[in-house]
Amino acid sequence: MDNEIATSAGNKQTVRSAETGTDILRGLAQLAPSTSLSGLAKHIDMPAAKIHRYLQALMASGFAEQDPQTSHYRLGREALYVGLAALNSVDVYRSGGVALTQLRDMVEETCFLAVWGSEGATVIKVEPAPRSVTVVTQIGSVLPVFRSSTGLVFGAHLPDLEIQYWLDKDASQRPKSQALRRKDIEAQLAQIRTQRMCSVQGLFMPGINAVSAPVFNAFGGITGVLTVVGSVSNFTAELDGPKARCLDLVARKLSADMGFRDTEQKEEPTLPKAAKPGRKRTAS
Hints:
single chain; 6-stranded antiparallel beta sheet; two-stranded antiparallel ribbon; 9 helices; 45% helix; elongated
């Protein structure tokens, strides 16, 4: 009996030690590239003497380093290996499937996930709306860069040289009278970056509205776009509407799952409970 109690106490102490170690590593990551011992103690609300003991062990195992010039601490090479391994296991196709289903259940409209391919914005996953008549979007569909909400969100994060390439390509496919002006497009893309979403009414297809939001990876690059589409009779696609707010939440949550750290967001995004969806019928 005494041995069992001793084992249980030892296990609890091991768990607490592991939690303390991960708190310190997380603090070093949040205060990167480096921080003083006092700065780290204040950030994670832990006594400096206690942190110092753990840092010695972390440095011995390669998970932390100390700058000999400044005496500041930073993450070590082993932490880099672990971080890269975690990033390599993250995939927007796999992670996005769960997020897409959650989004569809929340807004009860057709939702899809697109990535950037050689031909532009390409749909890779679709969740149809739970009603008899839905907006059909096919997997593999390529959406125009400047004439769809999905394409515009990608366009808002393209380098300048690529913007001109896609403008030229768009112009080559339409009469001169329908050519887009770069000045107008740049103003629209700047607004999308500020709002972090794009809403269109009947731009890609008459009678169909859409709202799109970006998904970012751990390096801050755009890795996908989530889009909600619906007929004008059911979906107004207003950026301040409840469905757009759900889209924004899901996109931010998926970005966080991909390793993106939003400096403008104080708290981890959490999703509200989805409304109970109606009986799902075959999409037409």
